[in-house]
């Protein structure tokens, strides 16, 4: 690994003569993956870049906590699509970060394809594997039938409603007893992908995402090193919550909560969709209706994690421990980090309305709740020695976990959300048409916004080009394949 390369974000390409005295300037609002990616790209292009970040840390919804003595990702933890086509692969490969592949399957919607799981009922009886496999096949069939319902309907509807129609048409697909409880668990897992309940998920869109190949890989060392590498050497101002963005005849004026004004030629806005929806930032003049309606029409889902550190491992050596129940809400699941990382940590994942309810509890109450589930599944379960509880829905810096497709979503909403308004550019996971809700989608959207901004500013200023530093892809692509393990 080349430390100088890291410092500069890559290698210096042959210098092109500067043709202007002061380089174009850009303010990037938000220091998550999309913000640091955009800032890195523009800085590599010799632009003057300032990142304004409201928190006292960078990374945003990539948040690796080290208080357990090992990396714990309280936001994103998987690279979805462990393949060279993934925009983050060159950087992850270059940094030598290990991935633990939890599933080779590219499917994201149901987990009977998980190769390593144990499901239990509320009395602690383990569900036989053939029951899980059989119900998984039925669930697949039900989902296929919902596609037929979609083809017959003119209007969008919630996925849950479509499932009810499937049951009316094909009563034999409706399950009972333990089989039904496993089916509810499959729905619970599906809801986790969208961070929304099945009665909120769009029938038209639930399967329209283009999932990359290569399955899903957990970042064994945590996601933060990716952020750190991108951010190195950038001018990042922490604790700077932007409250106003004014477009002026000669650029933008950005004002933060403490009254500081920043001026630049252009601005890239990467704050989460939830923050834009809450109107925490005032725009002057107001955003045009086509943009504000795009912000309103996109949905934001909630997923929260409860990470628990134990003094000993009392659970089976599988990747996922699940509890089945009579409704998706009564089901739950724990990711076993011990299998992937060797650390005695379980992470409970809550999504949709249940994730919202978790935020109303104190940390201790939330932990007690999930430990009570755990004790029903595994009577030997002990109390955790340390715990962490995320609150992505109520955190004013995120106001949601990631975007999701609401019922009746207009077809052009993502294009409108990501389109610039004069010298204001928009990036972030919600701006990614193909990979919204993901780290790599957010990363690519940051790069795309930076490139559009770079080209327009160079044209506006009559500058042919500036000194250019090579991108990660050029430096790393050939030398560093992804390191994939499954212990
Ligand atoms: C629990 C959870 C699990 C997830 N799991 C995965 C996963 O396994 N794999 C995956 O690919 N993706 C996952 N995601 C999604 C992924 O984390 C996000 O899509 C991605 O990190 C978003 O990056 P971003 O740059 O768009 O936004 P953010 O990371 O949210 O960055 C926006 C930044 O703007 C800052 N900000 C907010 N308001 C202001 C303001 N007024 N002024 C200045 N700054 C402001 C924020 O503090 C933040 O740093 C998960 C997300 C969550 C919450």
UniProtKB/TrEMBL annotation:
Keywords: Oxidoreductase. InterPro entries: Amino_oxidase, FAD/NAD-bd_sf, Flavin_amine_oxidase, Flavin_monoamine_oxidase. FAD binds at residues 34, 242. It comes from Panicum virgatum (Blackwell switchgrass). Pathway: Amine and polyamine degradation; spermine degradation. The keyword Cytoplasm does not apply. Its cofactor is FAD. It holds the Pfam family Amino_oxidase. The lineage of its organism: Eukaryota, Viridiplantae, Streptophyta, Embryophyta, Tracheophyta. GO terms for molecular function: flavin adenine dinucleotide binding; polyamine oxidase activity. Residues 33-453 form the Amine oxidase domain. The keyword Repeat does not apply. One of its GO terms (biological process) is polyamine catabolic process. Belongs to the flavin monoamine oxidase family. GO terms for cellular component: peroxisome. Gene3D superfamilies: 3.90.660.10, FAD/NAD(P)-binding domain (3.50.50.60). This is Amine oxidase domain-containing protein. Substrate binds at residue 348.
């Amino acid at each position: 690994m080349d430390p100088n390369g890291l410092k500069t974000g890559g290698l210096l390409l042959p210098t092109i003569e500067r043709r202007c005295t002061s380089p174009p300037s850009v303010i990037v609002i938000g220091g998550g993956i999309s913000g640091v990616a955009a800032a890195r790209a523009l800085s590599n292009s010799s632009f003057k870049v300032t990142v304004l970040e409201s928190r006292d840390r960078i990374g945003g919804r990539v948040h690796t906590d080290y208080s357990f003595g090992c990396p714990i990702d309280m936001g994103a933890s998987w690279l979805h699509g462990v393949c060279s086509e993934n925009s983050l692969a060159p950087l992850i490969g270059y940094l030598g970060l290990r991935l633990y592949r939890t599933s080779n399957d590219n499917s994201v919607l149901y987990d009977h394809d998980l190769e390593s799981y144990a499901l239990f009922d509320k009395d602690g009886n383990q569900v036989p594997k053939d029951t899980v496999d059989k119900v998984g096949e039925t669930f697949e069939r039900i989902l296929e039938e919902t596609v037929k319902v979609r083809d017959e309907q003119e209007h969008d509807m919630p996925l849950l409603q479509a499932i009810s129609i499937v049951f009316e048409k094909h009563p034999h697909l409706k399950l009972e007893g333990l089989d039904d409880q496993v089916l509810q668990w499959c729905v619970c897992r599906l809801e986790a992908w969208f961070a929304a309940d099945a009665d909120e998920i769009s029938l038209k869109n639930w399967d329209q995402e283009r999932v990359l190949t290569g399955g899903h890989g957990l970042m064994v060392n945590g996601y933060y090193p990716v952020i750190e590498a991108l951010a190195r050497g950038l001018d990042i101002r922490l604790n700077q919550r932007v409250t106003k963005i004014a477009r002026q005849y000669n650029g933008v004026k950005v004002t933060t909560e403490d009254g500081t004004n920043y001026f630049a030629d252009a601005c890239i806005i990467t704050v989460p969709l939830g923050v834009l929806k809450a109107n925490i930032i005032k725009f002057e003049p107001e955003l045009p209706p086509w943009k504000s309606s795009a912000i309103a029409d996109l949905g934001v889902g909630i997923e929260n994690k409860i990470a628990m550190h134990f003094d000993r491992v009392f659970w089976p050596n599988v990747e996922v421990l699940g509890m089945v129940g009579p409704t998706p809400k009564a089901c739950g699941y724990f990711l076993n980090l011990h299998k992937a990382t060797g650390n005695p940590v379980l992470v409970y994942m809550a999504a949709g309305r249940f994730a919202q309810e978790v935020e109303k509890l104190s940390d201790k109450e939330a932990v007690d709740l999930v430990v009570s589930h755990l004790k029903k599944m595994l009577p030997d379960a002990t109390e955790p020695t340390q715990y962490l509880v995320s609150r992505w829905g109520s955190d004013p810096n995120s106001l949601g976990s990631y975007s999701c497709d609401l019922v009746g979503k207009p077809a052009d909403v993502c294009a409108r959300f990501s389109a610039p308004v004069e010298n204001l550019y928009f990036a972030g996971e919600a701006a990614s048409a193909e990979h919204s809700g993901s780290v790599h989608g957010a990363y690519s959207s940051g790069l795309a916004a930076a490139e559009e901004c770079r080209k327009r500013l160079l044209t506006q200023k009559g500058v042919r080009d500036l000194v250019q530093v090579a991108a990660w892809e050029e430096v790393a692509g050939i030398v560093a394949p992804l390191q994939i393990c499954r212990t």
